[in-house]
Design brief:
It contains eight helices and six strands; from the N terminus they run E-E-E-H-H-E-E-H-H-H-H-H-E-H. With 206 residues, it is of the alpha+beta class. It has a single domain, classed as Cytochrome Bc1 Complex, Chain A, domain 1 (2-Layer Sandwich), CATH 3.30.830. Strand 1 and strand 2 form a beta hairpin.
Length: 206
Amino acid sequence: MNYKKTTLKNGLRIITAPMKDTQTATVMVMVGVGSRYENDEERGLSHFIEHMMFKGTKKRANTQIIANELDAIGGEFNAFTGKTSTAYYAKSDAKHLDKTLDVISDMFLNSKFDTKEINKERGTIIQELNMYEDMPMRSVDDVFEGLLYGNQKLGRQIIGTKETIGSVKRNDFINYIKRFYISGDTVVCIAGKIDENKLIRKIEKL
């Protein structure tokens, strides 16, 4: 696969990968921060932020509006958090690339982190944590890494603890975003049926 790397003046890296034998396009925005960069009080915050990115922006008020826009174009979308990175992505027919890019960039740049939504999402994440603890095939990796790394950041669960999930405040989210969600540590990758030069100009504008 041929690809092109473009670095903007603000340090943002863009990876474009044109693909001839497809009618789809995928947009992914990845930032170089995950659970290993959290302090003790922030455990699980990278993952919590991932959840909150889908909870509404200034332009799209809530989860339903975001989901409806992507569902309406047959889009597939999700996100994931690791030890060293967090990513948000959406895939759709290439003719809807402008819409996909607009939604993902809006989430990444303009999420509201509403206090009410944060408090509602605490329960969802704690349920997720409980589910993992009830799934030995899923939790064995966490146990292994805990034994391997011990009481170090790489030995911690990405999802955090019930104590930290229950105690982080909106300002913790905002401060974390300011520290880590920066252009020089972010990569935008778009693959599929694309016009590279046109797309790079559009991303630069966004």
